[in-house]
């Protein structure tokens, strides 16, 4: 039996050798001063080190809960402009993160199941601590923009992102002034529906008419969308150039217009 004596670790005594498969530790030592030297010199003692890097993440029940379907004629305070999603930490370690949104969206509230320290920071700067098996509930609202002109189609797809930025930590302590180690992005999508009314005919031709004998033509107003619309008729004469509007609600029924 050979006795090998390892001195106190000094600089260079433990060497880490990295390769494509992992890392190895090369420990350099010396024989005990009273031990007999071996017949053949011993090689270096190598210890193989293996570590798996797992990025922090939060899980949610599908992405459909982050998809909005809104009617442009409905005010922005309507419940359809808000969505709620729960995110759970399924990993075995505590994560620290910040939450922010991109695009025409805003965070209404963030409620964590684990007690948080009170903070006077803005919503995007608040740090949330989420231990294993705990969750955080996030409510996001689509911010309705004022329509500047006539829409191109019956609906418009508006996209954004909900981002969770994970911060570096040393155990349960947050590393101050450190950049996020990684980010998790969840798509936000709003399908904004526009009301539209179509006529059963593009033009009306009365052809020949008899004086003092009114001729009646019939048109049908059609709503090809799935949202309610309000329609009006603007009448003008060549003399006075006056317009009068008669606004009426219009849903799935097809009213007839007599001209």
Describe this structure in words.
This protein is 0% helix and 41% strand. It is mainly beta. Residues 1-14, 241-246 and 250-259 have low confidence and may be disordered.
Write the layout of secondary structure elements.
Elements: E1 4-5, E2 14-18, E3 23-27, E4 30-31, E5 45-49, E6 67-71, E7 82-88, E8 95-102, E9 105-112, E10 128-130, E11 135-142, E12 155-166, E13 169-170, E14 173-174, E15 182-193, E16 198-199, E17 218-222, E18 229-231, E19 234-235, E20 244-245, E21 248-250, E22 256-258
Parallel strand pairs: 6-15
Antiparallel strand pairs: 1-4, 2-3, 3-5, 7-11, 8-10, 8-12, 9-11, 12-15, 13-14, 16-17, 17-22, 18-21, 19-20
List its salient traits.
single chain; about 260 residues; mainly beta; Immunoglobulin-like; five-stranded mixed sheet; three-stranded antiparallel sheet; about 0% helix; disordered N terminus; disordered C terminus
Give the strand content: 35-45%
* CATH architecture label name of the largest domain: Sandwich
Q: How many angstroms separate the termini? A: 114 Å
Runs with pLDDT <50, length 5+?
1-14, 241-246, 250-259
Radius of gyration: 35 Å
Short structural summary:
The chain is an all-beta fold and about 260 residues long. It is about 0% helix and about 40% strand. It has three domains: about 5-50, no CATH class; about 65-195, Sandwich (Immunoglobulin-like); about 195-259, no CATH class.
């Amino acid at each position: 039996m050979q006795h090998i004596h390892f001195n106190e670790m000094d600089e260079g005594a433990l060497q880490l050798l990295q390769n494509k498969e992992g890392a190895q530790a090369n420990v350099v030592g010396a024989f005990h001063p009273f031990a007999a030297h071996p017949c053949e010199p011993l090689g270096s003692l190598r210890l193989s080190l293996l570590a798996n890097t797992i990025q922090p993440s939060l899980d949610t029940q599908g992405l459909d809960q982050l998809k909005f379907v809104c009617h442009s004629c409905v005010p922005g305070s309507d419940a359809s402009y808000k969505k709620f999603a729960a995110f759970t930490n399924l990993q075995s370690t505590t994560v620290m993160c910040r939450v922010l949104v991109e695009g025409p969206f805003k965070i209404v509230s963030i409620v964590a199941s684990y007690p948080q320290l009170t903070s006077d920071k803005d919503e995007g700067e608040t740090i949330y601590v989420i231990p294993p098996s705990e969750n955080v509930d996030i409510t996001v609202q689509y911010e309705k923009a004022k329509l500047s002109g006539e829409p191109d189609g019956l609906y418009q797809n508006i996209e954004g992102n909900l981002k969770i930025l994970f911060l570096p930590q040393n155990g349960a302590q947050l590393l101050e002034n450190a950049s996020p180690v990684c980010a998790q992005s969840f798509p936000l999508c709003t399908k904004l529906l526009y009301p539209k009314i179509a006529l059963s005919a593009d033009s009306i031709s009365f052809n020949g008419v008899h004086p003092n004998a009114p001729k009646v033509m019939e048109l049908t107003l059609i709503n090809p969308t799935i949202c309610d619309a309000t329609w009006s008729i603007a009448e003008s004469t060549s003399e006075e150039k006056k317009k009068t509007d008669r606004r009426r609600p219009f849903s799935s029924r097809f009213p007839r217009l007599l001209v």
